Hints:
By secondary structure, the chain is an alpha+beta fold. It has helices at residues 3-14, 23-33, 142-148, 174-192, 212-220, 266-278, 296-299, 327-343, and strands spanning 39-42, 48-52, 58-64, 69-75, 81-86, 98-103, 106-112, 135-136, 154-157, 162-163, 168-171, 198-204, 225-233, 236-237, 240-241, 257-260, 284-287, 308-315, 323-326.
Amino acid sequence: MDEKHRKFLDTLLTTPSPSGFEADGQRAWVEYVSQFADDVRTDAYGNAIAVVEGDGPEIAFSGHADEIGLMVSSVDDDGFVHPSRIGGADRTVTKGQHVEIHTDDGIVTGVVGQTAIHLRETGEEEYEDVAEQHVDIGAETEAEARELVDVGDPMTFKTSITELQGSRVAARGMDNRVGTWCAAEGLRRAAEADVDATVYAVSTVQEELGKQGAKMVGFDLDVDAALAVDVTHAVDSPDLSKEEDEHGEVELGGGPVLARGSSNHPEVVRAAREAAAEKEIDVQLQAAGRSTGTDADAFYTSRDGIPSLNVGVPNRYMHTPAEVIDLDDLDAIADLLAAFAATSEDRDGFEVEI
């Protein structure tokens, strides 16, 4: 990944974008795609859509802009802030973390309290639910705390991007700014290749709250195919072995993951595999017998059924402050998206033959 495109990724990863509060992240995404898109627009809830016009079929690449987080739920008499979840925040990794509360007047820093090991009984501990935890912002009274934060202010973990060995990187919120990066880069690479298809790149909101942004975009866009890029579980770490059949076979650095079954349209899957083979892009396959849990599930039931595909980014430690991905997988996915657009130029559609 070259320096310019890595800088864009870093900007996405360091711009907080909790579900329902994605505007800052969307502005960064719009600024980037505006350099090469023919048109960029946003809707009432902040979904962003960029397009490169062509004469062939209409194809959309998407990722979701939002990340999980916490939210100010209440403030107690002693000035401690009590959080609630935004999306699927994991109660097992919240305690002891540094957080940033995003207020109308700027960032208020705090820490999620954890009783010292010396002062608690160990051995049979249970994890408190998020709502039972507290955030210490240093305030001594309720009045002091309420001068700083309001109920409903979102908060995110305060983390940095960490370079690991080779092309591997750790950060908060890989889920799913890496998907929006791939959608934008897939559009840019399709534009550079001068494909005949009309190609959209989409950055949706509120996926973590039930794929709500994709439902809006699916109603708005009338495309022939939609490829939703989202993280998927890499099972090549000691805590989750790929030898456990129910977890599949996905490996970090193994390339794009193409899901099969449920919302994944068989003709779109076939076209993606053919495009990958033509460009010599290694892909991994994943079974999705019931659903994908991604925006693809919303796209495929929009209108009269949009042929859709979930393209996965292998990801370790999902929904923690230290998600790990391989940058080579991102480049391969962006190349695959552009190749899919190029090899689909002469298609009339992706209907299943009956």
